[in-house]
Amino acid sequence: MKPSRSSLLLLTPVLLLGCSHENQAVQAAPPTAQAQLVKTKAQQMPQSIRTSGTVHAKETAMISAQMPGTIRQVLVQAGDRVRAGQLLIALDDSAMRSDLNRATAAQMAVEKQQMAAQAGATLASGTLARYQELKNQKSVSPQEFDEVQQRSQAASLQLQALQAQSSEANAAVAGARTQLGYMQLHAPFTGIVTARTADPGTLATPGTPLLQIDRDGPLQLYTSVDESLIGSVRMGMKLPVSIDGIGAADTTATVAQIVPAADPSSRSFLVKLDLPASKQLRAGIYATANFPGAVRSVILAPQSAVVMRGSLPCVYALDAEGVAQLRYVTLGNRHGDEVEILSGIAAGETLVNHPGDRDIAGKRIEAQP
After folding, report:
1. d(Cα 137, Cα 124) in Å, to the nearest integer?
2. DSSP 320-366
3. Which of 69, 109, 197, 236 is most enclosed, with most CB atoms within 10 A?
């Protein structure tokens, strides 16, 4: 039985539609590109705990007055370099100078009295010696001898009293000079003035800081370490330190001191790290230190496989068909030429190495020989 003409007309569009789908399937095959390929890997690595801190001088002096007084002169500014013994601040010393002048005058008066008493004691002693000879010769009465002997003893006692007064007068002069010296504040060591709160005309009181001076020399990083980590910190331990504020490369610091008492509010310990000498370092700069923690499993990928799209890091990962897919990833710490991948890809995945600015998403990647 022959097919009807109407049936043939119905089959023709179906055949044409099938041919069209075959052409589209051929055209939908992804384009290919060649590139170097690398694989991510899982690796056990010690966990790095980053702590922040501030750079300090090893020695810092807070300059304050020991005696109350009005500030007459401030001879330095913040940022000035000073040498040991340099005069920094002068207080009004008029009252102290008056006290010193009175003590000096009293000392001179006692010295003159002491000289006169010394002469009298010497004369009385000589007279007593002569009367002793006369007494031996029975040429004086016992009463006369006793009177001469008592005068000699009195002269000696007066001399001793004046000697005690002289010691007291000398001590008063020394004390007045010491107090006068408190009216001038000097640098305890060579360094740099890092803070100034003193101004002429204001009243300086004992214990109130007027200047802060940091000693010249190597600096230290003060950082707080959580109590859970302090057990692994040891004296002399070498730790990597980053100081981004001065644009310097990472350096190595040494644990110099572990303050044994924890801060009760934060449950952390203060650790001081010796920093290597550097002309770029300044007290007050922000820095971070990396302390070793527990071992953990991380995913590592070559840094060269990571590209930035806008402000986000990403990689080109190959699917089961070898087609590149753009994946946004979260990065962790760097380890040489490799970087930790915290999220976005798994271990063992194949990545495009050095993708550069090419947009290869959706392309089948062939390994470059």
Report:
1. 20
2. TTSBEEEEE-EEEEEETTEEEEEES--TT-EEEES-TT---TTPEEE
3. 69
Q: State the CATH architecture for 49-59+217-293.
A: Beta Barrel (2.40)
Query: Of 180, 168, 208, nearest to 65 (Cα)?
Result: 208
Q: Which among 275, 265, 320, 329 has a CA at the least distance from the CA of 300?
A: 329
Q: Say what the pTM is.
A: 0.57
DSSP structural state of residue 245? G
For residue range 45-82, what is the model confidence (pLDDT) as tens digits? 877 788 999 999 988 999 999 999 999 999 999 989 99
Cα 41–chain centre separation: 39
DSSP string, 246-286: GTPPPEEEEEEEE-SSPBTTTTEEEEEEEPPP-TT--TT-E
Fold of 62-91+183-216: OB fold (Dihydrolipoamide Acetyltransferase, E2P) (2.40.50)
> How far apart are alpha carbons 163 and 111 in whole angstroms?
8
φ, ψ for residue 310, nearest 5 deg: 75, -125
